[in-house]
Amino acid sequence: MTIAFPEPRAEVLAKRDRVIAALQAIVPGEGVITEENERRAFETDALTSYRRVPMVVVLPETTEQVAAIMAFCHAEGVPVVARGAGTSLCGGSIPQEDAVVLGVAKMNRVLDTNFADRTMRVQAGITNLAISGEVAHAGFFYAPDPSSQLACTIAGNVAMNSGGAHCLKYGVTANNILGLTLVTVEGEVVEIGGAALDSPGYDLIGLFVGSEGQLGVVTEVTVRILRSAEGARPVLFGFNEIAAAGRTVADIIGAGIIPVAIEYMDREAIHICEAFAKAGYPLDVEAMLIIEVEGSDAEMDATLARIVEIARRHGVSVIKESKSAMETAAIWKGRKSAFGATGRVADYICMDGTIPTGRLPEVLEGIDRIVKGYGLRVANVFHAGDGNLHPLVMFNVNDPAEQVKAEHAGEDILRLCVEVGGCLTGEHGVGIEKRDLMREQFTEVDLLQQTRIKTALDPKWILNPAKVFPLDAPRDAA
Amino acid sequence: MTVHMPGSADELTRIIADARAARTPLSVAGGKTRAGLGRPVQAAAEISTRNLNGITLYEPAELVIAAKAGTPLREVIRTLEARGQRLPFEPMDHRRLYGTTGEPTVGGVAAGNVSGPARINLGAARDAMIGLKFVNGRGEDIKSGGRVMKNVTGLDLVKALAGSHGTLAVFHEVCFKVLPKPEAERTLVLTELDDIRAIEALSAALGSPFEPTGAAHLPAEGMSQARTLIRIEGVPSSLDYRAGQLARLLKTYGALDALAGAEAATLWADIRDAASFAGVPNPVWRVSVAPSKGAAVGAALKARGARVFYDWGGGLVWAMLGAGDDPQSAFVHAEAARHGGYATLIRASEPARLAADVFAPPAAPLMAIQRRMKSSFDPDGILNPGRMYAGL
Questions:
Q1: Can you tell me the distance from the alpha carbon of B231 to that of B229, in angstroms, rounded to the nearest whole number?
Q2: pLDDT tens per residue, range B117-163
Q3: If you classify domain A110-227 with CATH, what class do you get?
Q4: Are residues B7 and B137 in the same domain?
Q5: Domain A346-419 in CATH 2.60.120.10
Q6: pTM score, whole prediction
Q7: Nearest to A228 by CA among A149, A133, A163
């Protein structure tokens, strides 16, 4: 437990009754949660080793209510932690004792679907998968597909600029959002963008997507929807040598082929996921790639033939093509449940660094060395096409010393990622987890420019406090 | 006028710090081929990125290229082409429309978020920009993003700065995500459709699984008949298949002809650069709008005597007004806004651009956020003052 939380401020805690009364006046009925046993449901997210029970939870149903809540909390200087489904892996939605949790989960309706313009307007609390579900009947989908897509909300996706397995071709959240309704910290409602590709002035969508709840609260989103490919087929490639898998990826991309997904799993991850999902993964290999291609049957055959030829050049030992929709589903179930399946065999922390793909072999060796140095085990799964690594460092949660070791191992891995030209987080966000590592990647002036924007849009720093920026990050006076 | 030509990031930092200390406004320039874009800047001195030159990183297998801001775009494109790759966003070349000479630069493309027809499928410049090094109006050398294509570490200043027209910072290095060039391209052509039917056809194509990377409509003018264009790309066998499927899908709109090779490439370059509006001084507008509203915007502008064509599946309306210096700014912005879109005045005389709203005026709360952003980067307003909005 190495991450510090700020002490709750007594002057805020002292206002609790008044805050509750004000919130109840804004959100009538059961939208304000005050009992401790019910507030406890909001004490953490997917970074479960850290938790703080919030002062009060409010679940508004309209943008106007969100605006009134923000205006009140800003005037009173009460911290606000906006929350979607609470699936953040980096502690992005962990509250603190003197904060109001503003959950958007009740705002989960589809407002408009326009197939001609290929857009959908949704409330921010809708789940990622529900967006695709709404348009699947017409053969459309919403592209970013984080592994938590069954539960996670578009609000959280916007906050974290979420990716997924298929962003090699389709991009991340920032590339798939056209409009936002944003409530500022002062409670002003701002419409940014809309159904057009351009919006006037500075690219505020680009700024707000990925801002981790630091700059405002998003209540509605216009997303781009895309027509699904005619077919999609994943193929498993097993290698006896890790470096051969890396070279295969480089040569595929070098040959001008952009598969819709290239996923990598090492031996440990393969065994853990196969035991859980029975996906038919090869168990006697050191590394496996799941490569998915899209198109008509003939197009997929042609692309796969080229990929197979490249893999053969690098001594692939197993090739297994999905022969049915059921097999395809099982292959993806295995990969997408990698985190959950690992959780069945051990506690783990999931890292999210990105590296230049050319440095893959040395980084994998480095990860192995770091983790062994702490006497721990690691399972590696990652998005190989874009170099986004998810080493799962395993530990025993009942052994506090081992947990600290795992956290240190994770930090060392992220330092390595930055050292080779990569970054701390590719798609999960900084949250509290990587907050104190920001100086590995950024200089003081780099950080200062970021905190100046934070101060400009949240002068009292009440939005999602103690996240993203180191607690002692440089900042100007408001 | 003093022209500063820093040869390094350090020099650039010093020049801006000095200008800030002296409260000297600076205009920011690359190759000056797009000098006509935006409101005229009144500044005592100019910063040119011309001597910040050269490709700093190219890893074809990682789909990434980085170059200093003053690097000619041509050099980046040529380097990528040698390895069968391209910038995905097909940046417009403004030289024809403005009659300018010189070399468009990497920094200019980034500062203007300059994109072309492929944006409809492959994204804009801002979507391909993954790393940026810049000096803000305080004279601080800052980086955001990097050289990897997935990066959510901290606030995304790369996107916040893309399209900021030199008003927040001077870029000195830009890193782009790139894509392989397709093996082949083909342009499918429908003829004699009116604007509404044409955009319906483009929407059907863009809503198909066949991934058009270009979708434009050129209405009938004079002797030439209306042409509706759908560009597809891939390996030749795949193109045959996709063309066949699209012909079936669009059969109620007429028969599909096909163009390829130099003829098609020229046609798309002309659309990208609005070449049909070149050579005369008339005001030119771009209106970005939902495709289903494109024809209505086009009709309103035509009723005022404008010539019009459509890109981005109808979501980008290009319009050239009749002769005369008046860009009819209030009318065009109102028409765009009425249909939920945004207009930008792309070509007009300096006095006209000084008097008119070149960019769509944002609503008051949105403008307030823009002002706060501006002052966080450039508190004394020394960088390209007034380029986007008066007083910003």
A1: 7
A2: 999 999 999 999 999 999 999 999 999 999 999 999 999 999 999 99
A3: alpha beta
A4: yes
A5: no
A6: 0.97
A7: A133
